[in-house]
Each structure stands twice: as C-alpha cells, then as structure tokens.
Hints:
Low-confidence stretches: 1-6, 108-114, 427-438
Strand order of the largest sheet: 3-2-1-4-5-6-7
Distance between the termini: 23 Å
Largest sheet: 7 strands, parallel
Structural class: alpha/beta
Shape: globular
Strand content: 5-15%
Number of helices: 17
Number of domains: 2
CATH superfamily of the largest domain: Glycogen Phosphorylase B
CATH topology of the largest domain: Rossmann fold
Mean pLDDT: 88
Radius of gyration: 22 Å
CATH class of the largest domain: Alpha Beta
Amino acid sequence: MNRRGSARAKVRCLIVIGTRPEAIKLVPILLALRKSQLIEPYVVTTGQHRDLVDPVLALAGVTPNADLAIGKPGQTINDVTVATIKGIDDLLGDFRGGRAERRSRPRMGVHSTGSERQFPGFVVVHGDTSSAFAAGLASIQARLPVVHLEAGLRTGNRNSPFPEELNRTLLSCIASLHLSPTSKNRDALVGEGVNPDTVFVTGNTGIDALKWAASLDLPWPDPRLEGLEDGRELVVVTAHRRESWGAGLQGIAEGVRRIAVARPDITIVLPLHPNPRVRSYIEPPLAGLANVVLSDALDYVTFARLLKLAKLAISDSGGIQEEGPSVGTPVLVCRDTTEREEGVVAGTLRMVGTNPDVIAAEALELLNNPVAYAHMQGAQNPFGDGFASERIVQAFEHLIFNGPAPQQFGPPFNRESVLADAGYAFESDEAVLAGDRV
C-alpha cells in the first residue's frame, strides 16, 4: 500500500537482450523479478542472435514482450548500433502513443497496472556489446534512466577487446546506477570519475545463471557427447573473439591440436561459433582428430553441464572466466588482456594468449601435474556467491519505492545520489513514485 492507501502498481523495467551471454546473465534477474510485487519486467530482444537467445529464454519460461528484429546478414558494428537505436526509439514512441517528444525529466511509470502502454521507469542493459551501448544511448536520449549490469570491467586498452572495452566505457558515461560484479570493478569506475554513491557491488549474475542451469536435467543434444561422465578426462574449448580472427584463432586451434595429439586419452569438446569465418580458422587443424568433438553451438544448459564435468577450460570468452572457477574448473584465457584481473590474481585464471606453444605447454602442465592442477583448482572464485540477482532486484525496489536496502556483497549505493543522477528533483518519495502522467 502507498501513503494514500491504494494498491501500489508495479513499475515497468525495460530489459534489453541482444546476445546469448546477455540472455544468460539476465535470466536470473528475470527469475528473481517474478517474485517482486513492485517491479514488472518488459523483455526486449534485439533479434540479432535470435537462434541463440530464444532457447535460453525459453528454458526459463520467458517470452519476450518485443523483438526489434535488427538481425541482417553481413551486418557491421555500426549497422547493429544504428538499428538498435532506431528500434529502441520506436519502441519508446509506441509507449507514448506515437509521440516522439522528449521529456524534461524521467518518470517512474504511469500507474496503470497491466497496461501495454505503461511507460517504463528504467532500462537495464548488460555488459559491453554494441547493442547494449546503443540501447543505453537511445534510452538516455529519451530521458529514461539506465542501469548498467556488469559495470566497471576494464582492460585499460580500448582496442582490446574491441569494441567491447569502448562500449562499456561509454555506457559508464550514460548509466545512473552501475551494478559492478566486484570491488575492483567499482574502483575502476570511481577512478574514471563515476560517483561512488551510484555504484553497487553485487557479485556476477553469471554465477547465479550457472547454478540455475546446473539444476536442469536435460538430455545431451549431440550423441557424441553421451558417455562423457564415464570418468574420461574432458577439456572444453571455446574460441570466437573478433580481435583474434585470423592468426589468433589459428594459433588457438593449433595449440588445441597439439594437446589432442599429446594426450589421446582425453576428450576435447569445442562448440563451434555459428559465424562461418570463425569456423574457417578453427576446423581445418582439428577436423579428423579422434579425440576432438567439433559440435555446433550448444545450448547454455548443455554447456554449463560440460563446464562442470571438464577438468580444464581453454577459452577467449569473458563469461567463462567467471563460470569455470564457480564449478571448480580452471581456465586458460586465450587473450592478451582481461577485464577480470581478479581471477588472475586469485589464481583461478591463467593468461596464455594465442601462441600455440604457450597454450599447449600450460594445458599439458595442468593435465599432467596433479600438484599444479590442485593448486589452481583450489583457488577461491572472486566473482560471486550465487545471490547477485536477489541483491539487484532488492536494489531496484529500494531505489524506486524506498524499500529495505539490499544485502551487501561489496560497497552499497546511495539512493538519493542515483535518483539525482537520473534527473529527479528529490522533493519527496511520493513525487518520485508518482512521476509524470500522460
């Protein structure tokens, strides 16, 4: 009940999902929002990777409310950015009944529960993709407050990874609430001039997602994966990152080939990215090796199960750097830089780049040396405890309805500072909650 005694309507939260990693890390928040009596999610998919995103959402019983349908063959980064900005702008215009004018300050939503025309109170974007940056830019231009999930990851080199480092840095200039996985991420934001009172350290929702996925019992989608639980050692490999296209991916594939030849008693599973260019670098050195399984892209639940079974992961992915250690799987990172230095310091990650000599040597050291392996496997995961999503939803309720402050994983945020950054004249809770009406 609000102060006037009437039932309190939910505030709509726009959640934008472009890629499978975004879907994976946003699903736990969507599941947690189902329990909220105050916040209603409105899920928007960009449509750029529909075949990868929709199955993840379906596993969680989530049907998108809107699809921007921006995916086109041969798109450039700028194509994705422009299409996302237009798609979000058109969607916000639909909420306004076709009116495109901007507002002088944000509103927290029109109090008409269940109305498809209810304007959202805020938008959540995740991570570092061009679609996430574009959605944030389109939203802030419409005076819709932006919440950035997984904020503050940095390598310090805007060309590595590209364009991810640039996108997440730009989003930090846009967001009013920064949800950082670790205190190190918070420190990076503060060092760039972000108000520390607008940063909340939550842990990473990727850990929450892995717990959820591990609880699902589904059959193996590829018959070649059956029998992996028979005790044979398993290595999981992923490679796709744009800055590695060419010599980098070729180096990763050659390193994996050498591991397979040196250890014919292990099984290596490498789910191939759907991009044909990526496949052209990976397949030639590995095709025909009896102990290498080159599968199509795997659904998240299957991959989570593989990662849990694996003795070792070799990857240029960002999320696996957090997910592997959460299930006790050491990760060799095939990149020259990482925005997850905490794992390197803790010992759960080891940087190996794309040099095949280094990749093979480091992997075989861990596979052949039980002492070295036990030391790396036993390192403590610094990236989360599996309860980030509950903290985040509680933060939303605290921010908008002045509910109880969320439980802490790291330093908290200040409600008044976030509202002020979003453009609210902090007159009273009732004024903030009521917003503007149409």
